[in-house]
Amino acid sequence: MDLLSQSGYSIVVGHFNHQLRPEAAEDAQRVEAVTARFGIPFRVGTADVRGHAESSGISIEDAARRLRYRYLFALAHECKAQAVAVGHTADDQVETVLMHILRGSGLNGLQGMAWRVVLKEFDSHIPLVRPMLDTWRWEIAAYCASHDLEPAYDLSNESLEFTRNRIRHLLIPVLEEYNPNFRETLLRLSKTVQADYGILREVVEKSWRDCVLAVTRELVTFDADRLLGQARGMKRNLIRLAILELSPQTDVKFSTLERACQYLEDSTQRSPQDLQNGLFLFLEASRAYVGRSRTSLPVDFWPQLAEMDSIPLPVPGAFDLGSGWTITTELLPIEEVVREHVEQEENGFQAWLDADTLSEELGLRTRRDGDSFRPMGFEGHSQKLSDFMVNEKLPFRARDRWPLLCDGSDIVWIAGYRLAHPFRLTESTQEVIHVSLFRQRSEGKSFVEGGDRT
């Protein structure tokens, strides 16, 4: 407070009473008296931290941090503040890194706390800053003594009930017996990792942009092929980022990330995999999801019919399926169709039909009980539609409204997958109906989904 005030910053002091000690109210009064002497605005908030910890199933330390920051950022937002500044010291950094090591943290934990960070859980714009993160506690005490400042001492700092206090009072003194400069060494480690992690973060962010298709409040959607193509270390980082995107304050465990990687790499695992904090991982066709609720899994990646009844599809013509999906038809003389191109075409989102094989008007409909058809490549043999969808791994929740191109009751084409054998082009074909299914990108450019069936 004194340093910021001396530097000319306009500040408001926010004090949070955790209600954990009998003298907590007196501490608030003491801080108020100090701010009055400096002529600095003072605000105080309070909450039942212990009760919140019990009801939420989290530690008291965790509950205290969440409620404290919730109050401070609400105050900062109200005051239109540039930042929330807190007094973490170099000693706090050492304790934090050591705590992360004991929990089995990766590189992210070894870098400790950041000088500046945006905590999206509390505010997406106002940052948290730690201007004293490189200053030792003894230096602060010396400054206070030389500037006639009397900081209050929180007696709970002596309590061995809290993990951080046990690290501070019990573990660090033992480690200093092995290395008297242990604190300085660990602080240097955190700075080194921060610099190295900056390089890693750039690589991870590039892979994130390459692999992630969509992010909402409930769901992170990956391109499964690209995610599975990453090295295991990168997979861990991407899943970790997805978890933090949905639950920013989660202490992501290494075991969680390993379990996620094993799930992704095991082709027999297709039930959703539980992660942490109610989040799940689900691999489906060419999409992988990290989400909060399985009901939030999207269907707009795929063409879906809103109507269950048959819809006429004129030739030539077009029909808007919704969610950016459009199906078009055109009639072409055989002279304009290169047979070799049609025969080699592997894009399931386009089909070439022999117009003479169609007996009725083309239409779109959804599947019905007992549906079957004769897929190309099956030498005219019939297959149940339900079996075909299972074999092609068409996502279950998208099957009921998947568009089927039909000639009367006969299935002509399963959009995006397979043409029926009777409607293929032959040597005697004279006229061709070309059908194309595509989706419009949000910026207005169209694209054909090609082999990507989700």
Describe the structure.
37% of the residues lie in helices and 20% in strands. By secondary structure, the protein is of the alpha+beta class. The protein folds into 3 domains: 2-184, HUPs (Rossmann fold, 3-Layer(aba) Sandwich); 216-296, Uridine Diphospho-n-acetylenolpyruvylglucosamine Reductase, domain 3 (2-Layer Sandwich), CATH 3.30.465; 311-447, Phenylalanyl-tRNA Synthetase, Chain B, domain 3. Helix 5 packs across helix 8 (163-178) and helix 11 packs across helix 12. The chain starts with a helix and ends in a 7-residue tail after the last strand. Residues 442-454 have low confidence and may be disordered.
Give the helix/strand layout.
Blueprint: H1 2-6, E1 13-17, H2 24-38, E2 42-46, H3 49-56, H4 60-79, E3 84-85, H5 90-102, H6 107-110, E4 116-117, E5 128-129, H7 137-146, H8 163-178, H9 182-211, E6 212-215, E7 219-223, H10 224-228, H11 232-246, H12 254-265, E8 273-274, E9 280-284, E10 287-291, E11 311-312, E12 317-322, E13 325-333, H13 339-344, E14 350-354, E15 362-365, E16 372-373, E17 383-384, H14 385-391, H15 396-399, E18 404-407, E19 410-414, E20 418-419, E21 431-440, E22 446-447
Parallel strand pairs: 1-2, 3-5
Antiparallel strand pairs: 4-5, 6-7, 7-10, 8-9, 9-10, 11-15, 12-13, 13-21, 14-21, 15-18, 16-17, 18-19, 19-20, 21-22
Helix pairs in contact: 3-4, 5-8, 5-9, 11-12
